[in-house]
Amino acid sequence: MKTDNLGKLIHLKKLCTDNNHFQMLAVDQRPPIFNIITSSTGKNYTYSQVVECKKLITEHLSKLATAILMDPHYSLSNILKYNQSKGLVITLEEHSFVETEKGRYSSNIDNWSVEKIKRAGGDAVKVLAWYRPDAEDESLEHQKKYVREIGEECEKYSIPFLLELLVYPFQDDENHTKEYQEQKQKKTQHVIDSVKEFSKDRYKVDIFKLESPVDSSELEHKISEETELAFRELSEATNDKPWVVLSSGMGKESFYKCLELAYKNGASGYLAGRTIWLDAFENYPNIMEVEEGLINDSVNYVRKLNELTARNAQSLDTYFDNGFKIDNPEQFTKDFGDFE
């Protein structure tokens, strides 16, 4: 093993179960939680309301997670003491983005960086990059450069780079939206080709957070041969890098089936949020009813996901066994480099 990767491996290990699977909870959502509040109250959301929602989720569900994904504005800065998981993934990208007719442009949260995430005790840097291969050239080049530079920073500070990829609708598409939700009628090849691009070594991605390669409606009934093939091709596109599945707010049964297919093809776990806890907020702002939903339905669903993960997900045992083998251990202090 290159000793420079040791720090990354130790952080990744903290995100896993004892059997080296990922069972990670997302509370970094911003627009989806803003929408819960505004649609339920008919008023603009407040900072304290957003924090309250994230606190409720963390307080009741983090005990079932191996790691939690937090944003710096609302969750990291307020609710760390409620987190009962052992691993911490921290968001880097701003939730808003620049959109043109045929492209999207991502950027970091103001005054936030890979270095600050490392100093704050993060075990991984999470970045969501909007990407589709048929976007305008300027968008493609911007997104590639954006991801590449973050990968280089993660390498410098020995912290894992967790990249989330989402395809999106263009402005003139029938189902255009800027919401953080699964693109309707997305093309499987767009999803697969996006992963192929960023699995190249130049981006230094350590773990992928990936959406279903097919529309979630395709998971509601009997699974077709085309869907089976799509998941195989998605796995092949990762270039043997570890990957987990995101839920993109799909229905609970669809996500369960999505995980079954993903695990069959080499996924090592999940990093999910809305599918797990969104239903509990149907009665917001009635906090007692929200808590009842989290304690019952959400907890039971997470346990079901964790049982499936323990049975069927791809363990990273071999990945870690190989990674912790250090060449020339007697030369470790000499070979292990400083931050550059």
Number of domains: 1
Q: Which homologous superfamily in CATH is the superfamily?
A: Aldolase class I
Tell me what the CATH architecture is. Alpha-Beta Barrel
Instruction: Bin the helical content.
Output: 40-55%
Q: What is the molecular shape?
A: globular
Order of helices and strands: HEHHEHEEEHEHEHEHEHEHHHH
- Could you give the distance between the termini? 19 Å
Strand content: 5-15%
As a whole number of angstroms, the C-alpha radius of gyration is 19 Å
Query: Order of strands in the sheet with the most strands?
Result: 9-8-7-6-3-2-1-10
CATH topology: TIM Barrel
The CATH class name reads Alpha Beta
Please give the count of helices: 13
Q: What's the story with the biggest beta sheet?
A: 8 strands, parallel
What class do helices, strands and sheet pairing give? alpha/beta
Descriptive overview:
The protein has a single domain (3-334), classed as Alpha-Beta Barrel (TIM Barrel). The relative contact order is 0.15. It is built from 13 helices and 10 strands. The chain is of the alpha/beta class. Helix 3 (47-61) crosses helix 11 (287-312) and helix 9 (252-264) packs parallel to helix 11. The strands form 2 sheets. Strands 9-8-7-6-3-2-1-10 form an 8-stranded parallel beta sheet. Strands 4-5 form a two-stranded antiparallel sheet.
